[in-house]
Amino acid sequence: MSAQFYVSPEQLMKDRADFARKGIARGRSVVVLGCREGIALVAENPSGSLRKVGELYDRIAFAAVGKYNEFESLRQAGVRYADTRGYSYAREDVTGRGLASVYAQSLGAVFTADSKPFEVELAVVEVGDSQASDHLFRLNFDGSIADEPGVIIMGGDAETISASLNEAWGGDAAADQGFAGAIRAAAAALPGVPDGPEGAAMLEVAVLDRDPQVLRGRRRCFRRLDKNELAVILAA
C-alpha cells in the first residue's frame, strides 16, 4: 500500500492558482477598450479560424485568453444560456452581469472541485446607450469577477502592455476617440504586433457598436473587422 501524503487546503489552492496563471501567461494577449463609439476588442491572434473574440448576445461580447478548448466550451455554454433565457423570458433579461455571474460560478466550481483548474481568463462586455453605461467584466480562472472601468488587459505580459497602453490611451482625450483610435492604441501596446498595416495579419478585432445608424436598424451590435479594414486603420 502506498503512503498517503497530506497537503493543506491552502497549499492545494496555491498550487492550482500557480498552474493556471502560468498557462494563461503563455497565451497571446487581448485588450478591451471602451470608447465614444462603443467597445473595441483587440486580440493578438494570427489564426484565421480559431477565434478568441465572439458574440454572446445582442449587446454582449466575449473575449478570452488561455487554452482554446476550455474557453471555447465556455463561450458556447454562454451562447446557449443567453438564447434560452432570452427565449423563455425577454431579450432584455439577458445581461452582461448575468452572463458574467454564470461564468464565475462555473469557473469557481471547477477551480475548487476538479483535479485541474481551467487555464483561462475571460472578459464579458456589454455596450450601453452611452459610454457611462458600458459594462466590462473580467473573470479569473478561480471565478473571481471585477467590473473594470473601461479597460481590460489579459494574457501575456499584462503589466508591460498596461504601461505601454497608458501612454497612448490616457487622460480625457482617450474617452473622445472612436474605434480607430482605440484599435491603434491597443495594437501599438501589443508586443507581438508589427507597426503599420502589416500588423493586421496578427490581429483579430471586433467591436460592439452603440450607433444604430451604423447597424442599419439591426438589433445586434457586434461586428468583426476584416483584415483589409484593419490595415486601413493601422496605416493612418
Automatic annotation (TrEMBL):
> Which top-rank group of organisms is this from?
Bacteria
Q: Do you know which Pfam families this protein is assigned to?
A: Proteasome
Which UniProt keywords are listed? Cytoplasm, Proteasome
Q: Gene Ontology cellular component?
A: proteasome complex
Entry-linked InterPro entries: Ntn_hydrolases_N (IPR029055), Proteasome_alpha-type (IPR023332), Proteasome_asu_bac (IPR022296), Proteasome_sua/b (IPR001353)
Family of this protein? Belongs to the peptidase T1A family.
Q: From the Swiss-Prot or TrEMBL record, give the protein name.
A: Proteasome subunit alpha
**Chain's gene name:** prcA
